[in-house]
Design brief:
The chain has 2 domains: 102 residues, Immunoglobulin-like; 147 residues, Porin (Beta Barrel). It is built from 1 helix and 17 strands. The longest helix is centred in the first third of the chain and has 19 residues. The strands form 3 sheets. It has an 8-stranded antiparallel β-barrel. Strands 1, 2, 3, 4, 5 and 6 form a 6-stranded mixed sheet that branches. It has a two-stranded antiparallel ribbon with strand order 13-14. By secondary structure, it is mainly β. β13 and β14 form a beta hairpin. It starts with a helix and ends with a strand.
């Protein structure tokens, strides 16, 4: 009889102990607040360095993973291993190369497989200068005149008027330091020069840039090659993969060859379309 009572007492004790055993605490995860951290509705520029941060709590946390998705596609993932901690905070810089709405989701897992997640959306904008970055090739058309006023040995002035003269042009554009700045390397025929520009919408207004053109005149008894210093003023408009050029150029130069001297002048309007090839 005593044995039965003892047995029943043990069973009741075990049942009470089991009923008092607490369930594992579910983990939680929340974004870190602060202006320097991404949060719901943040607007950033593609390829800029931005900061994400999260704090997780629970029992024996083992893993935290942050995932960036867009339209159901994973853009990037940042997994981290946690050494069974009750609290874990993480933050680090990332870059987002997509544009549009991107969802950032952070999921934390504990030692018994319980998980918790938090998500928010950010807007990633294309940098104003990024759409212009690329390599463009084509012909510019020049219309204008070039004149040489020559003195000495009875030589008549030289005049050259031209309409829609084709000039091969190659332009490589890279992003400038500011959001609205670009830097272009421009090759006209065999001459290369650098120009900086400011973006406004689909247009780039380039600062005036300079060129040196070597002319060649057959004087009969000799050939002379005077140089003319040229300044370009150009606006470029992006239309799809076409970079439309519009502007003008002016130039002045001197020549002094023995008994021959004179002044060189030129003016022209320029325009044309270059195709983006890469």
């Amino acid at each position: 009889m005593k044995r039965n009572i003892l047995f029943m007492t043990c069973c009741i004790g075990l049942m009470l102990f089991a009923s008092c055993k607490k369930d594992p605490v579910a983990p939680t995860v929340t974004p870190i607040q602060g202006e320097q951290y991404l949060h719901e509705g943040s607007q950033v520029y593609a390829d800029d360095s931005v900061t994400i941060g999260f704090t997780a709590t629970g029992e024996k946390l083992t893993r935290l993973e942050t995932t960036l998705t867009q339209n159901g596609n994973i853009l990037s993932s940042y997994p981290e291993t946690i050494e069974q901690l009750a609290t874990y905070t993480t933050s680090y810089p990332i870059t987002i190369d997509a544009t549009g709405t991107v969802t950032i989701t952070c999921t934390v897992t504990d030692a018994v497989g319980q998980t918790a997640s938090t998500s928010f959306n950010v807007i990633v904008n294309e940098k104003p200068n990024a759409k212009f970055v690329g390599h463009y090739e084509g012909n510019a058309l020049a219309t204008g005149w070039m004149e040489a006023e020559i003195t000495g040995m009875g030589i008549d002035p030289i005049q050259d008027e031209f309409t829609d003269r084709e000039v091969p042009v190659v332009v490589d554009i890279v992003a400038g330091e500011g959001l609205y700045e670009v830097v272009a390397t421009c090759t006209i025929e065999d001459r290369t020069m650098t120009a900086t520009g400011t973006v406004e919408g689909d247009n780039i207004t380039f600062e005036t840039f300079n060129d040196v053109i070597t002319m060649e005149y057959d004087m009969g008894y000799m050939t002379i090659q005077p140089e003319i210093n040229v300044s370009y003023t150009v606006v470029a408009t992006l239309n799809g993969d076409q970079l439309m050029l519009e502007g003008s150029c002016t130039g002045q130069g001197d020549m002094n060859y023995g008994f021959v001297s004179g002044n060189l002048s030129m003016e022209a309007t320029i325009g044309g379309s270059l195709t983006k090839t890469r």
